[in-house]
Design goal:
single chain, alpha+beta, MutS, DNA mismatch repair protein, domain I, Dna Ligase, domain 1, six-stranded mixed sheet, disordered N terminus, binds thymidine-5'-triphosphate, binds calcium ion
Amino acid sequence: MNSPWKGKAKATNQAYDDLRPTITYRHLLSNNLGVRDPLRVVALCDSDAFYAACERVRLGLDPSVPIVVQQWESLIAISYPARKFGISRMDKIKDAKKKCPDLLAVHVATYKEGEKEPGYWDDVDTRTHKVSLDLYRRESNKIISMFKESLPTGEIEKASIDEAFIDFTRPVREKLLERYPYLAQVPADAPDGTDSPLPPPPPINWDGLGSVVPVSPSEETDGTSELSDEVDDNTTWHDVALSIAAELMKKIREDIHSKLGYTTSAGIARNKFIAKLSASYKKPNSQTILRNDAIPNYLRPLAFQKIRFLGGKLGDALAKEYDVSTVGDLLTVSLEEIQSKFGENALWVYEILRGIDHNEVKEKSALFKSMLASKNLPTPITQSSDGHQWIRVLAAELALRLNDARESMPTLWPKAIVLHARKGYETSRSKQATFPFVRNVTVDVIATAADKLWKELTGDAKTINVTSVQLAFTGLEKAEMGQKSIEGFFKTRDIQQSPSLKRPREEYELPASVEDTSLAPPKSSNVEAVSFQCSRCHKVISLREEQVTDASEVAQRLATLRLEHDDFHFARDLAHSNESPLVPVPRSSSSRGVRRKVEPKGIAKFFTKK
Ligand code: TTP
Ligand code: CA
Ligand code: CA
């Protein structure tokens, strides 16, 4: 230890070598190291009891009020005060009220026939109303905007209605150089010039920065207790980076709390996988830091089938092949071994087990996004003429969502409008048409377009049996036009309605109300929907009729489907298949997209569906 240029301590465990890289001046000073940057810091921030918090804030209630959000008879969000009474999502509303007589149950807002806006009605009934998640989408957008404003050099990726990944690498790097200016200059006596390791890092005071996951599970720390010498000894510049990110994260979370009223919980670590994994370490209103050194003991006891993408067939196959269940068990399997059984791309599995994840934090482009409003009908539509009422309800939701999104992206335009209807036990059928380029997207404009599709779909059948209807905008994009045409397009009336038009162009942001399926965790899916459209292949994935029971069940099953479908893409990406993806025929009106069969290879076969 006589020279500060000596590499720091060797990794204690060969499996985790990647967790203690030598960090050099080149690493620190190069501008674009991306996902392999040894100083990379990522956070996942999730809102606490989100829908319940939104309703509490809307009603101006004290945070101590036990409040739940109800959808029909099910509970979809439970505030932390209500959880103290032992209430969970599994409870029916009646049982919840038995557990807590003072419970405030708010039914989620609904669209009602003939109403343009969703509301809180006394007579909610699944036969006549449709759930609206608009409030939650709007509040979610406010939170995302705060992340963006606070971190102009950070990358923000909305991951679900109440979660976002934040790449802190850049903002942290700026602070690091500001605080430790000596790092900006490679010392003249550095043995390998820019490739010399950084000098030893300063000690870190974690006080008030959150829960620091202990390196050995037996140690308990809450961010206030003194950390053992062992930790101090092993402090790395990456830990310093984590602590700076924790400071920034804390400030943003406090800001969100004081300005919007929401508490959040965050995980801060070296990559998305580990950040997400640690975000729920302590809830609510807290943040967790998972240092690289703490990763091995954190991962080892984990049941690997709980890891995203290892939950399905691949996880089953791994468990069976090696007769094991935890991450630790699988560490004995060599890369060669796992690749010989599961293909080249099993490298991904090998790495995840070792806390390595090279997925980028990237704001999703608005391209190929869709907005979908759907209603699962408790009483089927049997007469073609009765479809209209539901179409208007769905049109009202799409109108509101598109116009909301256009507040921040005024030229957002859907390429097409698609109507899906499920008839009895058949699979869903759909019709689509290009969406007219009109100035004001009103409920009427949408309903008129949708009515036409409905007629095409139902033909002149005397009796029909439609059990679910869905209306979607697809191919949402910013319309390409010059500033002149934008002004002409929106004319004075609209400009007055939409003050955001005055904002500079760069500020147009991705409307979070535009759903995407890619990384969204399952839970936040619209519990009303019985299908979703994949943002990548545009395919509409629907639940089978027998899978549709009650609302909460639908959400779960749909979530599973979504995951399976994402997994499918994931596997395809892994397999680098050169065959074209499943793309529905993009003609003006088509039913049941034509698909090409793809033979899965290697690891991919564990993700394909029958
Ligand atoms: P979660 O983040 O899973 O849960 P939560 O925010 O309610 O609670 P926690 O503090 O534990 O994070 O989901 C976010 C919102 O998504 C939730 O408030 C309601 C909605 N949701 C459903 O509608 N159905 C579901 O099955 C789940 C899990 C969530
Ligand atoms: Ca949450
Ligand atoms: Ca969540």
